Amino acid sequence: MQTNGQLFIDGQWRDGRGPALQSHDPATGRVLWSGHAATADDVDDAFRAARRAFPDWADLTLGEREAMLRAYAQKLERNRDELASLIGREVGKPLWEARTEVAAMIGKIELTIRAYGQRTGSSYAIGGHVLRHKPHGVVAVFGPYNFPGHLPNGHLAPALLAGNCVVFKPSEQTPAFGEAMMACWHAAGLPVGVLNLVQGERETGEAIAAHPELDGLFFTGSSRTGALLHRQFGGQGDKILALEMGGNNPLIVRPVENVDGAVHEVIQSAFITTGQRCTCARRLIVPGDDFGQAFVARVAEVASQLTIGAWNDDPQPYMGPLIGERAAQQLIDAQAQLIDSGARALLPLHRLERGPAFVSPGIVDVTGVDVPDEEFFGPLLQVVRVESLDAAIAVANQTRFGLSAGFIGDNEAEYRHFWRRSRAGIVNWNRPTTGASGAFPFGGIGASGNHRPSAFYAADYCAYPVASAEATAPKLPEKLAPGLNF
C-alpha cells in the first residue's frame, strides 16, 4: 500500500510539524517511510477532534458501531496481500508470518464483537435494576513494532466498539503500517475525529500521556516505558491505564518420549519472529542429567540449521532480521555480558553477512551464573540446569515478570503441580509459550502488566459499568417508612 508520510487528524491527512521521522526496511536499510513527527500542538489538535466527535460516536447504537468495525475488516481483507508485504518490509517478518498477522487482524473484529457482548453487554434484573456499560471518552493507544497491526488492533477495535474516540500513536519504528491501518479505518467510513493518527517518538508520546483531555491510555511495549507511564499516572484515578508488557519467560522441559516434538515447541517458543515476541521463551530450564544434556544439544542442532533471510526470500526463511541494527547490537552486547559473568555459549549468537540487522539464534548456558532479570528481546535463549522439578519451578519464578510460562513433559501431574506454583498470566503445557488464543484473555502480572489483560478481556478496560435502578414513573409505595407522612 502507498503511504504519504502524514498524520491523520480530524478527518484530514496533514504533515506533522515536528522533527523528521523515517522507518527503514531492516533487511536492506532502505528508507520505507519518511515524514515528520507530531508536535504537542498536533497532539492537541488530535485530542480536540476526538473530544468533539465523542458525543455523536457514543450515541450511535452498538449495531451501528459493529457495522463500522465489519466494514474495516472488509478493507483489511481487500488489502491483505499489500498489508502483509508492508509488515514484511517494515518489520522484517517472513511473508508467511506477516500473512498470519493480517489474518489475525481480520479475525479480531468478530472476536471483539463477541467479547463486548459477553463482557460488557447489558443485563436486566427483577425489580427494574439494569447493568449497562459506557465508554470512557477519549483514549490513546500506543502500538509496538513487533506486531504493528495485530497488537494495536487489539486495543483499537474494542475501544471504538465501546464508543470511545481514539488518538493512535504507532511505534516510531513502524509508522508506515500505522498509516496503512488508519487508511483502512478511514476507507471504512469512520466518522471525522473518531480515530486520529499521530506519528512520533518519545516527545510525542509524552505529549499524549500528559494531555488534559486524555481519559485512558492503552499501551503495548517495554516494561521500562510501562513503568514510567504507571508512575506518571499515579494519583490520577480518573484515568484508566492498561499496560501490556514483556517478560523473562521460563520454559521447563522434563523427560519426554517424543524428543523432536518437544524440541519443536522450544524452537517455536524461543526463535519465532526472531525472538521478538513478548511471550518468547527466554529461559530454558532442563534436568541436569543425560536427558537434559542430550535435549539441549538437539535444540542447538536444530537452531543452528534455521533458515534466516529477508521477508520475500524464496524459499521462505524461518527467521527474518531484527527490527534494526541497534537491536542486533543490544543482543550481541547482552550475550557478551552473560559470558563475562561466567556463562558458556553453546550456540553463539552472531551478526550475519546478510546485513547489520541479521543475527543467528544464540543459546547460552547460565547454570550457576548470577544473571540479570531482564528481557533480551531477540533470539537469545538462556539454559539453566536443575536437579528436580521443584528446583525448576523455583528458577522459573525467579523473575519480576509474569507474562508467559511453559511446561513440556509427559507427566500431567507434574504439569498440574507446575501450574499451581507458576506466576504468569499465560501458562502452557506441551505448546509454545508464544501460543495464545484471541478468544481468551492475554496479559501478565508483576512487571508484565497492571492487571488489565487484553485480547478477549480488552472489553473490560474499554468501558465502565453503570448500574441503574429504573422505573417509568415515580410512585408512592404502599407502605411508607416510619415517620414519613403524605
TrEMBL record:
Positions bound to NAD(+): G221, S222, S223, R224, T225, G226
Region (Disordered): 1-24
EC number(s) on file: 1.2.1.71
Pfam families documented for this protein: Aldedh
InterPro entries from the UniProt entry: Ald_DH/histidinol_DH (IPR016161), Ald_DH_C (IPR016163), Ald_DH_CS_CYS (IPR016160), Ald_DH_CS_GLU (IPR029510), Ald_DH_N (IPR016162), Aldehyde_DH_dom (IPR015590), SuccinylGlu_semiald_DH_AstD (IPR017649)
Keywords (A to Z) from UniProt: Arginine metabolism, NAD, Oxidoreductase
Pathway(s) of this molecule: Amino-acid degradation; L-arginine degradation via AST pathway; L-glutamate and succinate from L-arginine: step 4/5
Functional note: Catalyzes the NAD-dependent reduction of succinylglutamate semialdehyde into succinylglutamate.
NCBIfam families: arg_catab_astD (TIGR03240), PRK09457.1 (NF006992)
Record protein name field: N-succinylglutamate 5-semialdehyde dehydrogenase
Native source organism of the sequence: Solimonas marina
